[in-house]
Amino acid sequence: MIRRNAIALMITIFFVMAISLSLGIALKQVKEARTDIQKQNFLLQTNVILEDVLNILKNSQEMDAVVKEESAEALYVLLSQASFIPFEHSGIAITLELKSARSMININSLNDLNATNKEERVNSFINYFKLFNVTSEYTSMLLDNISKVEEDMYYNSGIFDENPDMFRDYIVSQKHLDEINNYYMSYYNENSVAKIDFENLFYFSKDRASKVDLNYATAETWRLLTGCDEIRAEELNFSGGSFTKVSDLNLSTEETISLGYFATSYYEPLLDIRVEVKEGDLSAKIRFEYDMKTKKGSNFVYEI
Fold first, then answer.
1. Cβ 168 vs Cβ 144: under 8 Å
2. Residues 130, 125: Cα–Cα separation, whole Å
3. CA gap 263, 210 in Å, rounded
4. HSE-up of 258 (CA within 13 Å, CB side)?
5. How far apart (Å, rounded) are the C-alpha atoms in residues 90 and 149?
6. pLDDT tens digits for 119-174?
7. What's the per-residue H, E or C state across 132-180?
8. For residues 163 and 179, what is the distance between their CA atoms, to the nearest angstrom?
């Protein structure tokens, strides 16, 4: 085991070095091509850097090795050692963050029509929100927003009366969820929902059947999945990285039953990639999901 970890660590170090070297070469080339228009040049630089990051990921032998091995342990070592990579060249600062893209619950799985225990899953959401004194009407409102356009136009709430153009196939982003939360707080004249740590609880994908990787599940995710308290959730989060089966979790009978209502896994080679580029007063943030198996990026979000 020690030899295996040492090899994994060495591979990860080479991976970080490869990223740094490749970005350095790309930045040098971009600098030579810069124009007199600073903002346009910065956008050009950002696009080149993003393309280079994608090429590095696609051609990474270290990632190929993790996929070939299908090892939760190897993936954990890789993300532990290469989770945050800072780099600077010719006045341009870059930070690259790699995390599991399955550490949280896909909020749209609340209405997975193919789930055999949909009602129990909905109750898990309701019970979690009750911990923050948020009523079951909030869950009903979320269901309205991921149930598409109803033929009979019947919904559990009046959110579409005031927001008739609101997208309702699925919740697409935190901004979309914020709009729902603001309506809830305004309609019921209370702000309990603001106490929920949504940033560490939900992610947003139209793939309602996507699984939670329990080796990376956040503490808030554990609370919703199992109904456990804060201390127990922190323990489960801290212990992540070596889970391969449900017995490794040491859950109570009730917690195990609750966990069974959700789609979970111990190995999901899907990465949450965040790239931040800074040059002087200019900055850009790019976030996307990267599938290590298909070597494709998706759900790109830009903040420039």
1. yes
2. 9
3. 7
4. 20
5. 52
6. 899 999 999 999 999 999 999 999 988 876 655 556 677 777 777 777 878 898 88
7. CCCCHHHHHHHHHCCCCCCCCCCCCCCHHHHCCCCCCCCCCCHHHHHHH
8. 10
